[in-house]
């Protein structure tokens, strides 16, 4: 068991202790704040330096639009903010970082507003939407669409 796994386990235990304490204190606002705080910490560790992919947890919102599908983390969700959501390799540019040499610094963007989500390919290597390689034209995303870059899939929900 490496140090990252130990830290993840300890953080998980602390999270549940705090949630149980707040339930006993009957303070529902504290439960939400505690959950969000520790969820962001756990996201940093899950996709941290010891993994190939990670997310910037400071840029997440509670609007669950997309599920992140990759190997054993099938239940993990990515939450997108309204406006521009950048996926890419460069930590300075991207909101969602993918450490892979096949991924461009700014690989693709999902624009989110009240009534639609638009996918924009900014990459050199391209992206696939529903197993078809996209042209550089923006596409409106629909429920059930599947975006693929390298070996990562995103399912639109």
Automatic annotation (TrEMBL):
Keywords: Membrane, Transmembrane, Transmembrane helix. The keyword Lipoprotein does not apply. InterPro entries: Cell_Proc_Reg/RNA_Proc, FHA_dom, SMAD_FHA_dom_sf. PROSITE patterns: FHA_DOMAIN. The chain crosses the membrane at residues 6-25. The keyword Iron does not apply. CDD domains: FHA. It comes from Brotaphodocola catenula. This is FHA domain-containing protein. Residues 85-134 form the FHA domain. The lineage of its organism: Bacteria, Bacillati, Bacillota, Clostridia, Lachnospirales.
């Amino acid at each position: 068991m490496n140090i990252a796994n130990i830290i993840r386990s300890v953080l998980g235990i602390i999270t549940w202790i705090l949630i149980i304490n707040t339930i006993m204190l009957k303070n529902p606002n504290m439960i939400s704040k505690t959950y969000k705080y520790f969820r962001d910490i756990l996201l940093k560790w899950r996709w941290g330096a010891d993994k190939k992919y990670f997310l910037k947890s400071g840029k997440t919102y509670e609007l669950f639009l997309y599920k992140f599908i990759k190997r054993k983390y099938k239940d993990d969700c990515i939450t997108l903010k309204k406006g521009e959501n950048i996926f890419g390799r460069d930590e300075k540019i991207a909101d969602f970082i993918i450490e892979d040499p096949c991924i461009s610094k700014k690989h693709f963007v999902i624009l989110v507003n009240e009534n639609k989500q638009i996918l924009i390919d900014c990459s050199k290597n391209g992206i696939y939407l529903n197993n078809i390689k996209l042209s550089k034209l923006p596409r409106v995303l629909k429920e059930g669409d599947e975006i693929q870059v390298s070996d990562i899939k995103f399912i639109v929900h």
